[in-house]
Amino acid sequence: MKYICKFLLWIFGWKAMLPPIDGPKGIILGVPHTSAWDFVISWIYYTSVGGKASVMVKKEFFWGPLAPLMRSLGAVPVDRKRGATVAKQMIDAMNKAEKMHLAIAPEGTRQLTEKWKTGFHTIAKACDVPVYLGYFDWGRKQISRGERFELTDDAQADLKRIRQIYKEMGLKGKHPELFTTGKDIA
Description:
The protein has helices at residues 2-12, 37-48, 66-72, 85-96, 119-127, 155-169; strands at 15-16, 25-29, 53-58, 75-78, 100-104, 131-132, 135-137, 142-144, 148-149.
């Protein structure tokens, strides 16, 4: 599958920038998240470099023959109706897993949003795992798990620094009008 995915990346014109994260567990942010295609390109990329990433998917997709397929793609079922407990569900899943590279879009939606979510921060701190500033740049067609970001105990300050780094990268989403790093970033 690794070589098929390398070929697909090449066919689609994408360049993989870094190998998978080292270590058994970590969180990879996925920015900018403006299209369902972000998942497809990310899955192809991470498989092509020898990794297997997990993503949160609402539990309603885990029925009948779809459930094994979803799990094989790295999907982890979450009950989104329980709101704030989504982070708790992922903390439990990550603590139970021997290996998990969890991909999370801090924007929380493919729609334009000023407010990014800090659930990744909560999960990373609770599970004592590193966070990487992953990206998919549709403008340059470059994709990467990104560099490691050292978290502090201040989620809002960390999020502001993360948004500034992404802003400086000049990333372009598949739908550029749906991505912003926020008005609060000068």
